[in-house]
Amino acid sequence: MRLQVQLNCGTDNQLIDGVIVELAQNHIDDFENLWREQLRVFQTEDKFWDWLFKLGYISNNENEEGYALEVGGCTQGLMMVETQLHGSREAIGQRLVYIQYITSAPWNRKEIQRPPRYKGVGTALLRYARIRSVELGYGGRVGLHSLRSSERFYENQGMIDFGSEEEYEDMTYFEYGLLRRPLR
Question: Which domain of life is it from (predicted)?
Fold first, then answer.
């Protein structure tokens, strides 16, 4: 699996080619060696996520998938999705791709670096989750529980806000509904 994507360079808005690939050990190494310390320094909500554990979990469960977005061989974003067990809140009885974890490299976050190195990492990963949903016959439906710092991002992506949920540590649930037109 490889999907070509384009991101915007944060300094001049030039288009930069990237690729979304299956999650592998080299992406975990980038997270540990290049990301983790910056995430701790800036006290981000995802600073303790254990991507090595997640990679092992994905390899042992057929309903779990992991992806990385790379530019020039360097990991710019990570995502883990569940593909068989979650249902839509908008269309009861319909399945969706559930994003368990999604994150962007610290240098791509405007709260850490201005301007960010690359813009559009999260958007590209969300778009891929929708593509995956279509491939699975779920019509583009995607859901997730958002970290507080990311809620506005999901609102700006046009996802439906279903409110906070106590059983998910009061995280807000967001969902994309049925895709009305093909993704390009």
Answer: Bacteria
Query: What is the Cα–Cα distance from 82 to 54, expressed in whole angstroms?
Result: 12
* Residue 90 belongs to some domain of the structure: yes
Instruction: Provide the residue range defining the domain that includes 36.
Output: 2-176
The CATH number of whichever domain residue 95 belongs to comes to: 3.40.630.30
* CA-based max dimension of the chain: 45
Q: How far apart are CA 99 and CA 81, in angstroms?
A: 4
Predicted TM-score (pTM) of this structure: 0.94
184 part of a folded domain: no
- What is the total count of domains within the chain? 1
Residue 108, φ and ψ in degrees, nearest 5: -100, 5
- Calpha distance 112→20 (Å, rounded): 23
Contacts of 169 (CB under 8 A, 6+ apart): none
Positions of the chain with pLDDT under 50: none
